[in-house]
Structures are given as structure tokens and as C-alpha cells.
């Protein structure tokens, strides 16, 4: 990993964090709409509303996990440990980081 790679991946991570923030907002709006429909119009059944809410919560918790992973990746960059497997210390394949910039393990350790 040279400085250009690191800068590019940092941009990518920060863009992803911004994207998640927007989705968080949309997710909250969607939940609010479900509640409003339920109370004001009664068009959605209670089960539907609960399913929507459970789905929105699951998506929220996935986003929270991703935020934690992305922030952890930024910390590893600051510490100069980015791109190295946290288990065995080997370099993580560039393609793997391209696919998941928050990857903290090499493919071998990740699949154990
Ligand atoms: Zn490893």
C-alpha cells in the first residue's frame, strides 16, 4: 500500500460513511411514515407495521456495524497498520481491500 492507495481508500471509506448517514436518515423517515400510516389511516395492519419496523431495525443495526468497521479501518490507517491482517500480520490482498475497504483480516484468517 503506497500513499496514493491509502488516500484513495480513505476517500472511499469516507464516501461510504456519508452514504450510510443518508440511509440512516431515510430509514428513520421510513419508520416515521409507517407509524403515521398506522395511526392516521389504519391502512397497514399491525403485523405489516411490525415487519417494516423489524426490517428497518435490522438494516439500522447492519449500518451501525458497518460504521464501526469503517471507523476501525480509519484508525488502522492512522496507526499505519492498515492493509495488514490483524491475526497473522500478512498483507491483505489489494483486491480484497478494493471489495471491502474495512477488511481487517487476510482471506486465509477470515475464512478460518
Ligand atoms: Zn491473516
Overall description:
By secondary structure, the protein is mainly alpha-helical. The chain has one domain. It is 73% helix and 0% strand. The chain has helices at residues 3-41, 46-78, 94-99, 107-110. Helix 1 (3-41) packs antiparallel against helix 2 (46-78). The two termini are 25 Å apart. Bound molecules: zinc ion (ZN). Zinc ion binds next to helix 4.
Which key phrases capture this entry?
binds zinc ion; mainly alpha; elongated; 0% strand; 112 residues
Give the SSE layout:
Elements: H1 3-41, H2 46-78, H3 94-99, H4 107-110
Helix pairs in contact: 1-2
Zinc ion (ZN) is lined by residues 85, 87-88, 90, 105-106, 108-109.
Q: What is the C-alpha radius of gyration, as a whole number of Å?
A: 19 Å
Percent in helix = over 70%
Mean pLDDT: 88
User: How many strands in all?
Assistant: 0
- What is the terminal separation in angstroms? 25 Å
Beta fraction = under 5%
One letter per element, helices H and strands E, the order comes to HHHH
Number of domains: 1
Number of helices: 4
Helix/sheet category: mainly alpha
